[in-house]
Design brief:
The complex is a heterodimer of chains A (221) and B (337). Chain A contains 8 helices and no strands. Chain A has 221 residues and is mostly helical. The radius of gyration of chain A is 21 Å and the shape is elongated. About 7% of the residues of chain A have low confidence. Chain B is 69% helix and 0% strand. The chains are: A mainly alpha (221), B mainly alpha (337). Chain B: Its main location: mitochondrion. Chain B: InterPro entries: COQ9_C (IPR013718), COQ9_HTH (IPR048674), Ubiq_biosynth_COQ9 (IPR012762). Chain B: Pathway: Cofactor biosynthesis; ubiquinone biosynthesis.
């Protein structure tokens, strides 16, 4: 009788999906970990979750920082041409993204990537050199970078949804909103003759390869 | 019958959380969580009495440990009758172990947490004997004996004296964090004035170093233990959490290279002041605190100078840009495309 009851309960615990089991039912966290009552990111239950969230936020912050610098580079070259206002508008949205991530990082005590100075210079150079190829070059660069970033955000959204969509609701909202903005930039780039540049396929893939490498490294360093 | 059903229900609940703990922290499973360590553990438990189960752990555990605190209280209220018939039933009544072998993952996860709490208690008790016996297995053995455990329980500590020193570090750091959090609350409630950064850093480092005073004679031995290759990663981790905590409560919210430079500077200050403290013989370590003051002033000075240099640099760049634009205008290159 005892064994049957125990086995029934044991099977029941197996039937529950991993999401429920992963959800921390009683989460006592040291108060010094978060000094705000409301936060976009839920307070992590254990060090593994903290590490996962840290990586995600670190690489997102680095991505927005890099995108910021890319647009700055493009503006430095094309700022006073007809495409200036368009690039400025996209740059302003990236600035908004960056400030949001700065807020999130500071709140959750996430270490920013040590490679920020590198992304500073590399981003500016990429933006400036793509803009030197003309308006189509700048747009091609935008298309490539925004596509990489949207893909990256999508994979993060998938990962969070897999783990526990309810726990990460606000964070998912923020990431989805930013992903939609990036897709909009991508479409804007395509509208403004990105594909007309000679060697479009080569430029696009080279930049996307660079972005993938940057994402990989920023997660870890 | 009802009691048994209650126990089964509780154990299912524990199993769920145990799975959460194990799935979320696979590294938590002890590498040699074999019958050997379980045997040690059961041997030490047999020598305990019930009163031990009420003492909370003192070391700064990770959040998953505190997670288990919540339902270790649950375990106390319902004595765990368990499946393993080979064990002594009296010890199991006193034990907080979930020894249900039906759920290996959860059981291993829970045993690890309980063992860590036990280790923490032994090490805390051992600290009392460090001035006399140094940072050694002897101190741990005597500490275990004062808790009513056999001195053979030192077998649990694979790292020996290193475990003791690291536990002490963790304890000091968590005490400091508590003090800083309390001060932070006071400032938020308006009951205290916000300190200037330099003063805050000085007070925080002084508070933390004062925790070494009872052990100052044997601290060089502890430092040399921390320099052993297998202890270096852990000691660096404790140092970096300490410095990060101090800066966080000092109000640092930077998300760029400043994050790194500030922490590097504070690490330098802390380490050098610690070394000075070891050789200081002035009353109440006055020379050490003077040294600390001067180092912090140095860092503040450097920060100010860096800011000034940056603004000068920006002005110079602006000057050059102005000159370049003038040249472009003169040569007619500056036209709208």
């Amino acid at each position: 009788m005892h064994r049957a009851a125990h086995r029934a309960l044991y099977d029941w615990s197996n039937i529950l999906g991993p999401a429920m089991i992963r959800q921390c039912l009683k989460c006592r966290v040291p108060p010094q970990l978060s000094s705000r009552a409301y936060s976009v990111v839920p307070t992590p239950c254990d060090s593994e979750e903290k590490e996962m969230l840290d990586r995600m936020l670190r690489v997102d912050h680095a991505g927005e920082y890099g995108a910021n610098r890319i647009y700055a580079g493009q503006m430095a070259v094309l700022g006073r041409t007809r495409t200036g206002p368009l690039i400025q508008e996209m740059w302003d949205q990236e600035k908004h993204h960056l400030s949001k991530f700065n807020e999130i990082l500071a709140e959750n005590r996430v270490r920013p990537t040590a490679l920020l100075p590198l992304w500073n210079i590399a981003g500016f150079l990429l933006g400036a050199s793509s803009a030197l190829l003309g308006k189509e070059g700048a747009m091609a660069c935008t298309v490539a970078v925004e596509e990489s970033i949207s893909e990256h955000y999508n994979s993060q959204i998938r990962a969070l949804m897999e783990r526990d969509p309810e726990r990460y609701t606000e964070l998912l909202q923020v990431i989805k909103e930013f992903r939609d903005d990036e897709l909009e930039h991508h479409d804007t780039g395509l509208e403004h003759d990105a594909e007309k540049i000679p060697g479009y396929w080569l430029i696009k893939n080279a930049i996307q390869l660079g972005c993938k490498a940057a994402i990989y490294v920023s997660q870890r360093v | 019958m009802n009691m048994a059903a209650l126990l089964r229900g509780l154990r299912a609940g524990r199993a769920l959380r145990g799975l959460a703990g194990v799935v979320a922290a696979p590294a938590a499973t002890k590498p040699q969580c074999s019958s050997l360590s379980r045997g040690f553990h059961r041997a030490t438990l047999r020598l305990q009495d019930d009163s031990k189960s009420d003492k909370p752990p003192s070391s700064s555990s990770t959040t998953s440990h505190e997670h288990y605190q919540a339902h270790s209280a649950e375990q106390d209220t319902a004595a765990a009758a368990h499946e393993d018939s080979t064990s002594d039933p009296a010890a199991d009544q006193a034990s907080r172990l979930n020894t249900s072998y039906q759920d290996q993952g959860g059981e291993q996860g829970e045993e690890y947490e309980t063992e860590e709490q036990l280790q923490a208690r032994i090490l805390t008790a051992a600290l009392e004997f460090v001035p006399q016996h140094g940072w050694s297995m002897e101190a741990i053995a005597i500490g275990a004996e004062t808790l009513g455990l056999s001195s053979a329980s030192t077998g649990m500590f694979y790292n020996g004296a290193g475990d003791l020193v690291l536990h002490f570090l963790a304890q000091c750091n968590s005490q400091l964090t508590d003090i800083l959090a309390e001060q932070h609350n006071q400032v938020q409630l308006g009951q205290a004035e916000r300190k200037k950064t330099a003063d805050f850093l000085r007070d925080a480092v002084e508070t933390r170093l004062r925790m070494l005073i009872p052990y100052i004679e044997s601290w060089p031995q502890a430092m040399s233990i921390l320099l052993l290759p297998h202890n270096i990663p852990d000691s660096l981790k404790h140092l970096s959490t300490l410095v990060d905590d101090i800066w966080y409560y000092a109000g640092d919210r930077s998300t760029d290279m400043n994050w790194y430079t500030k922490r590097a500077a504070l690490t330098g200050i802390y380490n050098t002041t610690e070394l000075v403290m070891l050789q200081d013989s002035s009353p109440d370590f006055r020379d050490t605190w003077n040294f600390l003051d001067n180092r912090i002033q140095d860092v503040v000075q450097m920060a100010t100078t860096a800011k000034q240099m940056q603004s000068t640099g920006e002005t110079v760049v602006q000057g050059f840009m102005g000159a370049a634009i003038t040249l472009k205008n003169l040569t007619g290159l500056n036209q709208r495309r």
